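Technical annex, item 7. During the second reporting period the consortium partners agreed on a shared format for inverse folding records so that results from different sites could be compared directly. Each record opens with the tokenized structure and is followed by the designed sequence. A conforming record, contributed by the partner at site C, is shown below for reference.
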């Protein structure tokens, strides 16, 4: 993919827009009391989405930006699961019995859980909540520590989608990031999942890692295509050692520069397109019959903390340390540190420590940003009419004119279109409508 867009000009730090307002603007004014009030206001007829965070791994990938901790024995996980179950009971006690349309086990490494604990967690969840028809239950998996017994246990509690971390298939890159994972390990995990009926399988890849180049990322793709994943997520490595000190362990001199990163993501996108995958938003790829593609074509694609989704739930309920939730009234986040999370649960308190209430202006801007990130176009006028809100977007229109001059957008106000050649800079286009970006001291990953 060639481009005449001045990439260097737009290679600035911008959010990934999995929420709006974004997480750096959450504050302590939204606490457990506010959250309890918001939960009580939810429409009982509307299904919920659950996110369960397991913040433990048995080894640390040095590129990791997640909230996780390495453990070399199982007892911390067992103790944490007791807390997670207690939190689930607290939330269900406020909500009453509700229907669930989507569940996501994230981490960390949820696949580290013992088969008995997987079943116990699932049994409790389905004793407190009802499973809506067509509910998707997804789990993030590290195939290096996956047992067949764990695979069977996940299937027993209803898991029907798995996301497998791979990142790169070249040994030098794997060693540099402390994640050595032979192709056979990934293939065996996928075969095990399919053998128990978990047919929907995603693979996560990264570009911009140390020692990666175009040939190497294409080698990774060629290794994985015969395994026929339903979806691939292709993320750019975010080097933020000021936030994640373990990233200092990476050989910084071997990190690809801006132009190399652009070439890598473009090469991956082109090859996956040749293989028949449709590109979804910024960084996802899916087979033509995948629900993501159906939702994209129907204008129903959504974006949340798990990335691109078809989840229709009006509320995402966070469970576990650092988990973030989204409700019609705003966003909430649990205590990130396990000791602080533990103290709240042991005292019978919901562990929410921060969040943000959304205003009508936030909702309108969020809808605009989401449509840009999902559809590469937005009719601002239609969203204004739907919201009954007509802000002064003169500042935004001036910014869009500058982007249009550089080829990032086509503007026929109130319609904005992002051409395919500028897809990789979707975040920069969306940022035009971010009223908070210039305020505060939030630090984000770079656009390219």
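Designed sequence (site C submission):
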């Amino acid at each position: 993919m060639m481009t005449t867009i001045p990439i260097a000009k737009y290679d600035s730090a911008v959010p990934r827009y999995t929420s709006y307002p974004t997480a750096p603007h959450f504050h302590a004014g939204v606490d457990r009391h506010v959250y309890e009030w918001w939960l009580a206001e939810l429409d009982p007829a509307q299904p919920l989405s659950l996110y369960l965070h397991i913040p433990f791994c048995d080894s640390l990938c040095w590129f990791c930006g997640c909230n996780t901790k390495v453990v070399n024995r199982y007892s911390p996980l067992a103790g944490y699961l007791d807390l997670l179950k207690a939190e689930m009971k607290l939330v269900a006690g406020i909500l009453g019995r509700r229907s669930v349309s989507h569940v996501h086990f994230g981490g960390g490494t949820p696949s580290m859980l013992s088969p008995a604990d997987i079943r116990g967690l699932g049994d409790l969840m389905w004793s407190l909540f009802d499973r809506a028809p067509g509910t998707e239950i997804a789990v993030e998996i590290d195939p290096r520590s996956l047992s067949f017994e764990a695979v069977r246990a996940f299937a027993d509690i209803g898991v029907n989608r798995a996301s497998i971390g791979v990142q790169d298939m070249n040994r030098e890159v794997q060693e540099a990031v402390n994640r050595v994972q032979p192709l056979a390990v990934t293939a065996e995990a996928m075969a095990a999942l399919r053998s128990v009926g978990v047919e929907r399988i995603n693979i996560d890849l990264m570009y911009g890692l140390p020692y990666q180049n175009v040939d190497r990322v294409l080698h990774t793709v060629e290794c994985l295509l015969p395994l026929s994943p339903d979806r691939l997520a292709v993320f750019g490595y975010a080097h933020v050692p000021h936030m994640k000190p373990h990233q200092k362990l990476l050989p910084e001199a071997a990190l690809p520069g801006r132009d190399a990163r652009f070439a890598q993501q473009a090469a991956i996108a082109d090859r996956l397109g040749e293989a028949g995958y449709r590109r979804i938003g910024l960084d996802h790829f899916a087979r033509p019959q995948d629900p993501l593609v159906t939702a994209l074509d129907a204008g129903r694609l959504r974006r949340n903390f798990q990335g691109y989704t078809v989840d229709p739930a009006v509320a995402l309920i966070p469970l576990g340390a650092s988990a973030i939730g989204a409700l019609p009234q705003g966003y909430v986040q649990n205590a990130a540190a396990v000791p602080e999370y533990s103290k709240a649960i042991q005292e019978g308190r919901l562990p929410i420590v921060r969040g943000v209430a959304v205003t009508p202006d936030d909702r309108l801007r969020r809808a605009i940003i989401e449509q840009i990130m999902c559809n590469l176009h937005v009719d601002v006028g239609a969203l204004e009419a739907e919201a009954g809100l007509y802000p002064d977007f003169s500042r935004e229109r001036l910014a869009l004119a500058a982007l249009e001059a550089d080829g990032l957008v086509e503007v026929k106000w109130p319609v904005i279109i992002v051409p395919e050649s500028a897809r990789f800079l979707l975040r920069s286009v969306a940022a035009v409508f971010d009223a908070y970006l210039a305020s505060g001291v939030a630090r984000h990953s770079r656009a390219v």
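Residues 28 and 438 are 21 Å apart (CA to CA). The first helix runs from residue 7 to 10. All partners now use this format for quarterly exchanges.
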